[in-house]
Structures are given as structure tokens and as C-alpha cells.
Amino acid sequence: METLTLLELNGRVRITLQHEMPEPCWVQAEISGLNPTGQGHCYMELVEKDPSGRTFLAKAKANVWRTVWLRLKPYFEAQTGESLKVGMKVLLLVSVTFHEVYGYSLTVQDIDPTYTIGDMARRRREILERLEREGVIGLNRELEIPLLPHRIAVISSATAAGYGDFRNQLSGNVYGYRFYVKLFPALMQGEEVERSVIAAMDAVAARRDDFDVLVIIRGGGAVSELSCFDSYDIAVNIANFPLPVITGIGHERDDTVADTVAHTKVKTPTAAAGFLIDRMFETASVLENMTRRLGDAVSGRMETERLRIERIAQKLPSLYAVVKVRHEQMIENLWNRAVSGVRNMLTAHLHRLELMEKGIGAADPVLILKRGYTLTRCNGHAVKSASDLRKGDRITSVFPDGTVESEII
Amino acid sequence: MKYEEALKRLEEIVSGIEENKLDIDRIGESLKEARELIKSCRDKLYKTDEEIKKILETED
Q1: Assembly ipTM
Q2: What are the pLDDT digits (tens) for A380-403?
Q3: Contact residues on chain B for A286, CB-CB shorter than 8 A
Q4: A147 vs B4, B52, B56: nearest CB
Q5: Alpha-carbon dihedral angle through residues A263, B44, B48, B60, given to the nearest 10 degrees
Q6: pTM for the model
Q7: Do A293 and B42 touch (CB under 8 A)?
Q8: Total structural domains within chain B
Q9: Nearest CA in chain A to B60
Q10: Minimal Cα–Cα distance from B32 to chain A, Å?
Q11: Cα distances (Å, whole numbers) of residue A155 to A186, A197, A201, A255, B28
Q12: How do residues A193-248 score in pLDDT, each as one tens digit?
């Protein structure tokens, strides 16, 4: 058995590897370390874990030399909207190298971003499925945005251009609506996003009565770094949040998990402000409409009443005329009755007078004398009985045409 | 009164007048109430509420 120096041994390993694996190959791995250097290279740590994610099954160093890194980094970011980071699954074209001093390592020649995109999508799907199973996925969407969403809690980084856009858009709205914005600062990029956003949400939730909505916005960075919003913890906080959550975290590709569980998602901070202004516009329109209706209703009602009174007023003369005619007839009737009553009375009296006149006529002595009777007088008195006369009395018989003196014998 | 409540009350008054449910003698009164409600709603939309401003400016 031969004895080799370490250099000789390592040299043989290098030659064997070069011989056995002359061509580069595609390898799937998770990034567990990422160190860009001042010279423009990038050193990576790659791992493969068991399904539980706790145990390493394999590990390797990978180097991306400057010329490759300068091309690969922007390409990857443009394709995925993400920058390479720890925890990300990648598909890399690598050649296997062995260096007598530095040992085994991989040299990265290319990257396939579709693999990472697919992995992120799978992860999002898994989180969404979990939220669905837990029955929280639609909770925030069930909340109603108040009619007057003007007290706005904002989670963003204070320096982000997106936050400035949001504020300017709100304060410069052409309708003159008033908004009250309070910023709860959080890191929106990097490793700390999840913890920082959740802490800010807790701070808002503690003052929930002071606000109508929560807006989570970001924007301004070259790379969108959205995968931090594909977080189960952020999503579950949004879903259970006591106020409607509006996300405007800026992206062109598929929604993040945070967007999916939010009450309303828009693409940019400016669009988030636009959404709130539109809500206020709707509210203001309802009010203006109500004001118009009130005016119409009151004048309509007054018009109805006026017409009613007018109708009654118009009816009055004709009603009066009817009454007048009726009364006139009544009066005429009465008059007629009175006249005929008087006439009847007079006739009756006349009749009676006539009768009386007749009676009086029958008693006239002249008329009686004319019928052949005579009136006998003695000593100036009318003689009504034969026994009143004695022998020798002188009597006067009165005839209609004269008197005759006689003596009783 | 909250904006939502004010709007609801306003709706009651307006439909009351529209549907002739309100006594004519009380229309003046209702109109006054409605005008006040509209004003308070408009103020909430367009005027700065110093109280809200103060609450939101206080630091945690």
C-alpha cells in the first residue's frame, strides 16, 4: 500500500472528480448562507434537509464568481421579483470542483428561477391550505369597511417612497375629504419583516377603537421582496385582525398570502389611497343624494298640501252656490207657503163675512115687510103678542110703502 | 352620533316625508333635525376633527 502526501491525495481526489464529473449538472438545494463579497463574488452555503426541516441531509459550499454573479443576480431578481436569500430553494447549474487547500465546493454557472418561483408558489399554496383548514382565511374579508374610513393606521417604513405617495395622495384628494393617518413603522425588507410587521399590527390592535382601517404598504425598493408576505404568521394576524386590512405592497406577479387574506388588496400605496378616497366619494354621494331627496321630499310634500288646500278653496264657491240655491228655494217655499196661508185665511174670513152679510140681510125689516108682513106698533113700541093689546088701543101697522092707523074693537 | 347612525336617522326622516308618514305639523321640526344631521356628516367628511387629530398624534 502506497503512502501519499496530503497534497498528492487531494490532487488525486481532484483529478478523479474532474474525470468522473467533467460536465456541470443541475442541483436542487436550499440556500443556508449567502455572503456577497467586496470583490463582487458571492459565497453560498447550500443544504438539503429532511422533510421535517430540522436535520441536514447534505451540505456544500458554492461559489458564484463575479462575472457570473453580475449576470445571475439581476436575472434572478427580474424573473422572481425576489433577491436570493437564506431559506430560498434554488436550482443551480454547478460544476464540482476540488481544491487541494480549500477542499470540495461547487462553482455556480447558472440559475433556473422558475424552480424558485414554483417553490414559492407551492409554499404559498400550503399556507393558504392551512389557513383554509383553520377556517380563518376569509375572516378579515367578512368585516365591513366603515362608511367613513378616515382614521387610518398605516404599517410601512417611514422612509419608504410608497408611504409618502400614500400620504400625498390622501391629503391632496380633489374632493377635500379629511383623513387622519398614523404610521406604525415596521421594517418592510430583510429578515426582520415578519417579526416587525406583526409587532406593529399588535400596536394597532391595542388601539383598534381609534381607527377605521389598517393599511399595509410598501414600495420604492428595486426588488419587491414579497416572499416575506408569504408568511403564515403575518397572514394569520391579518385574517384575525379586528379592523379591515388593505394591502398595497406593490407587485406585478401573483398575490402574496397577505394579499389573499386581506380585506382588500391593491397593487400600490397610491392605489390604496385611491381606494379610500373612492370609499369616501361613495359615502359623500350617498349624503348628497340624501340631501337632494330631503329637499325634493319636503317641497313635494308642501306642493301636495298646497294642492289640497287649493282644491278645497276652489270647491268653496261652488259649494256655496249649492247651499245658496238650496236656501233660496227654502226661503221661496216658505214665502209661498206664507202667501198661500194668508190667502186662505183671507178667503175664509171673506166667506164668513159673506155668510154674516147674508144673515144680516135676512133680518132686514124692510125685506120682511116686502114679503107681505107688517109691523105693528102701539104707543111707539113694536107689538110682539096679541095679548099685549086691549080694546080701544090705537095701533100703527107699518107697510113697506106707508103706515095705517087702526083701533082695536 | 356616529356617521352611520346619523345617515340611518336621515334616511328615516327622508323616507318618512317621501312616504307621507310624517305629520305635516312636524315637518319643520324634522327638516331642522335633518339639516343638522347633514351638517354634522359633511363636517366629518370635510372638516378637521381636532379631537381625532389629538388622539392620533399621541404617541404610544
Answers
A1: 0.84
A2: 888 888 888 888 888 988 888 888
A3: 7
A4: B4
A5: -40
A6: 0.69
A7: no
A8: 1
A9: A203
A10: 11
A11: 6, 7, 8, 18, 48
A12: 899 999 999 999 999 999 999 999 987 555 566 778 888 999 999 999 999 999 99
